[in-house]
TrEMBL record:
Catalyzes the phosphorylation of the 3'-hydroxyl group of dephosphocoenzyme A to form coenzyme A. Its EC number is 2.7.1.24. Keywords: ATP-binding, Coenzyme A biosynthesis, Cytoplasm, Kinase, Nucleotide-binding, Transferase. It is an enzyme of class 2 (transferase). This is Dephospho-CoA kinase. Belongs to the CoaE family. Pathway: Cofactor biosynthesis; coenzyme A biosynthesis; CoA from (R)-pantothenate: step 5/5. GO terms for cellular component: cytoplasm.
Length: 203
């Protein structure tokens, strides 16, 4: 519990699971949504201290021609190197957590949603009252990622292998959205959870 007046729901799921769509549905219902991926992007914008630390740690090779962070290049550097990934996390994670806490303190709502794609990998659950996992079968997950990102199946499987396995994500869920259907079903599932969270936060 972030405060006596705010219940915190942490939303997570694997790549291509539908997290962004679910978070958008929550926003349409008037629920404050804080996306840690968006905060991470803000932290590495030109002129931000985190970007300078990343340059100091990994070199100017991580920048593009305009002096902005080349996220794809940085991802390749840290993807298969646990030590380098840990160095990047030490730069970004404390800043992200501090910004999440700052935004939560400003809220006066029954509950809020914090989107944390790599929840288990980060080892920090933001003191969640509820953990919501969006999930779907791997075959469907791969199909949707290919349609969205134009990646090969080999590339997608490499990304999936680097993330926490599906069973582990499902095991930590207080609430689970099975995203195997269409958008109407996904929206209905989100609306049902919204009503549930309003009831829980009122207790």
């Amino acid at each position: 519990m972030v405060g006596a007046w705010l219940m915190l729901v942490v939303l997570t799921g694997g790549i291509g699971s539908g997290k962004s769509t679910v978070s958008r549905y929550f926003e349409e219902l008037g629920v404050p949504v804080i996306d840690t991926d968006l905060i991470a992007r803000e932290q590495v914008a030109p002129g931000m201290p985190a970007l300078q630390e990343i340059i100091n740690q990994f070199g100017k090779q991580v920048l593009d021609a305009d002096g902005r962070l080349n996220r794809a290049r940085l991802r390749r550097i840290v993807f298969d190197a646990q030590e380098k990934r840990h160095q990047l996390e030490q730069i970004l994670h404390p800043r992200i957590r501090a910004e999440v806490a700052r935004r939560l303190q400003r809220l006066d709502t029954p509950y809020a949603v914090v989107v944390v794609p790599l929840l288990l990998e980060s080892g920090h659950n933001y003191s969640a009252d509820r953990i919501l996992v969006v999930d779907l079968p791997e075959a469907l997950q791969i199909k949707r990622i290919r349609q969205r990102d134009a990646l090969s199946e080999i590339q997608i499987r490499q990304i999936l292998a680097a993330q926490t396995d599906r069973a582990s994500r499902r095991a930590i869920a207080d609430d689970l959205i099975e995203n195997s259907g269409d958008l109407a079903a996904l929206k209905a599932a989100t609306e049902q959870l919204h009503e549930k969270y309003l009831r829980l936060s009122a207790r």
